[in-house]
Write a structure and sequence with these properties.
With about 200 residues, the protein is mainly α. It has two domains: about 15-75, Arc Repressor Mutant, subunit A, CATH 1.10.10; about 80-195, Tetracycline Repressor, domain 2. It has helices spanning about 15-35, 40-50, 55-60, 65-75, 85-105, 105-120, 120-150, 160-175, 180-195. Helix 1 (about 15-35) packs across helix 6 (about 105-120) and helix 5 (about 85-105) packs parallel to helix 8 (about 160-175).
């Protein structure tokens, strides 16, 4: 479930439409991270991005529509999966990227806000599920390759494995408040790898 966002230095398509979208989504992400979904106002976002509010209302219509597009953009900008040659190392790379994302003040707050919004808004929830579907599909070959190499049993469910890697880290973000650090990431990866080898995730 890797989703480290490659905002700095990202290569985006050119053109005015792309520049408008980039500016609006950057401001929307800042507002979400700083104040949460309830304070996401399209007119304020338009002003912050230097864009006419009519343009923002016409393209995104509602705060939920803006969040949905932000999640699409985040999926598009996410870093590709690791391919280290071993299951444990691939899952460790995955866990470390998740931990890096969630421990980042801006990105961690942004995910808290989006997850909270998804709990009460169907459009946001669908966009959030699509975001994770995209990331799980990107990383599924790590598990599929491990099956081919004989590291994992035939029938292992990649989605279940990758969810097991990230779940403890999200628990720390959303529930316990325990540190989300490299040690936590590495333990999560080791636990998921051991469970995978044991056949826990064979469907």
């Amino acid at each position: 479930m890797e989703h480290d966002i490659a905002w700095p230095g990202s290569v985006r398509p050119g053109g005015r439409t792309a520049r408008v979208r980039e500016a609006v989504l950057e401001v929307a992400g800042d507002v979400l991270a700083d104040r949460g979904f309830a304070q996401l106002d399209l007119a304020e976002v338009a002003a912050g991005a230097g864009v006419g509010k009519t343009t923002v209302y016409r393209r995104w219509r509602t705060p939920a529509g803006l969040v949905a597009d932000l999640l699409v953009d985040m999926a598009e900008q996410s870093l590709p999966r690791a391919d280290t040659g071993t299951l444990l190392d691939d899952l460790t790379a995955n866990a470390r990227l998740v931990a890096k994302t969630l421990a980042d003040p801006r990105q961690g707050n942004l995910f808290r806000a989006v997850i909270a919004a998804a709990a009460g808004d169907e459009l946001t929830a669908t966009a959030l599920h699509t975001f994770y579907d995209t990331r799980l599909a990107e990383w599924a070959p790590c598990v599929e390759d491990a099956v081919v190499r004989g590291e994992a049993p035939v029938g292992t469910d990649p989605r279940a494995v990758l969810s097991a890697v990230s779940a403890p880290l999200y628990y720390r973000l959303l529930a316990s408040g325990d540190p989300i650090d490299q040690d936590a990431a590495d333990r999560s990866a080791r636990a998921a790898a051991l469970a995978t080898v044991a056949g826990t995730f064979v469907s």
